[in-house]
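Sequence design from tokenized structure. All designs in this work follow the same two-part layout: the structure record, then the generated sequence. An example of the structure record is given first.
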């Protein structure tokens, strides 16, 4: 199968990074949504295990990386969900949980202590078509099938469910003031009970992280608490956060390959109200996602790279920390697909279930089941990440 795939790539003249696998590799990776009612392109995944044991996986569903209004997609991209009631052995068909006139994207899901399920997302609004002969550098343009449309950031939002994802609320929007923001991480609950919404700002030559905090379960939200703003680092952050054992909060912020800014970390010692200077992680990474295991270790999944200077060297990666984020053991290979936006839950048997997506035409959502890497002092080659051992579902 591997040789045949390579021959087909050479014959057709197309090269897609990291899409050649053996049959065994495929069998231990389960596709949980592809095509059908969720569209030709499914991406930007997240998964949560509810208090009742159900697994809910959410993802972007549309035509491509950005979905424009069309006959097939009159409302552009939407947010879909699948459910598993048997710890990932089987999954429901995808259903749409939110759709409106905007391109709704990067959904992430979590459950608060009171049982409220929350899906965060941001969206893009589309304006009029601009003729090719007319150029206006003051407007943001999206190029699509020979057309150019004015685009506008539609803001960051969330929807809630109080019945384990069976029904969903109307949209709630975070007011972000002077900055237009995006998000790509779940809402979290802090030890003091506050809800915290991680987000980021990216515009022209400025990109940094931000969080918003609610002390009353989303009825009111604070002003933005910025991470890395003004530090001469370009961090289109896709910010995620995790509470450390000492009560501090660790934030991870996406890096930028073009500017050689690696994934960065920052610490808050006051429950997210202020943040220390960003610190270089030493490795490139996009779309970071944290989870603390029952053992106390912290798992970080992310889009990793075998060559930090080459975007085409991406893969779906994992690192693990046994010292509260001071050092990160790895890198480990989840899959050679480079879509990433991976997330993890720890199942009842202490195995890990990881969701991620493929990227490219007909992109699908996948899951694998694996064990967390044991603590080790063995150095792993940066350019040759160690494959995780896959388990049967």
């Amino acid at each position: 199968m591997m040789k045949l795939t390579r021959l087909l790539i050479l014959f057709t003249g197309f090269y897609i990074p990291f899409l050649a696998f053996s049959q065994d590799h495929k069998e231990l990776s389960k596709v949980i949504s592809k095509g059908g009612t969720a569209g030709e392109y499914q991406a930007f995944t997240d998964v949560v295990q509810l208090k009742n044991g159900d697994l809910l996986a959410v993802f972007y569903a549309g035509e491509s990386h950005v979905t424009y209004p069309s006959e097939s997609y009159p409302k552009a991209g939407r947010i879909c969900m699948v459910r598993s009631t048997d710890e990932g052995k089987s999954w429901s068909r995808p259903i749409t949980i939110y759709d409106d006139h905007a391109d709704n994207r990067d959904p992430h899901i979590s459950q608060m202590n009171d049982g409220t399920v929350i899906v965060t997302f941001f969206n893009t609004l589309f304006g009029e078509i601009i003729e090719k002969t007319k150029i206006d550098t003051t407007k943001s343009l999206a190029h699509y099938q020979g057309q150019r449309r004015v685009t506008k950031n539609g803001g960051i939002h969330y929807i809630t469910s109080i019945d384990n994802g069976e029904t969903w609320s109307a949209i709630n929007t975070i007011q972000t003031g002077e900055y237009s923001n995006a998000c790509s991480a779940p809402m979290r609950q802090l030890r003091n009970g506050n809800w915290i919404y991680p987000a980021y700002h990216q515009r022209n030559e400025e990109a940094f992280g931000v969080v918003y905090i609610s002390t009353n379960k989303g009825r009111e939200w604070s002003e933005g608490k910025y991470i890395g703003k003004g530090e001469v680092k370009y961090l289109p952050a896709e910010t995620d956060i995790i509470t450390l054992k000492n009560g501090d909060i660790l934030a991870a912020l996406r890096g930028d390959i073009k500017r050689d800014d690696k994934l960065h970390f920052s610490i808050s010692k006051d429950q997210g109200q202020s943040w220390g200077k960003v610190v270089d992680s030493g490795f490139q990474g996009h779309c970071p996602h944290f989870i603390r295991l029952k053992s106390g270790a912290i798992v970080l999944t992310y889009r990793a790279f075998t060559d930090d200077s080459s975007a085409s060297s991406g893969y779906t990666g994992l690192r693990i920390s046994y010292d509260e984020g001071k050092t990160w053991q790895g890198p480990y290979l989840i899959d050679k697909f480079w879509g990433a936006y991976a997330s993890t839950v720890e199942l009842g048997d202490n195995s890990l279930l990881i969701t991620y997506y493929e990227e490219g035409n007909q992109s699908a959502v996948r899951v694998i089941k694996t064990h967390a890497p044991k603590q080790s002092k063995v150095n792993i080659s940066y350019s040759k990440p160690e494959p995780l051992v896959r388990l049967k579902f």
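Residues 32-123+177-387 form a domain with the Neuraminidase fold (CATH 2.120.10.10). We note this feature because it recurs in several other targets discussed in the main text.
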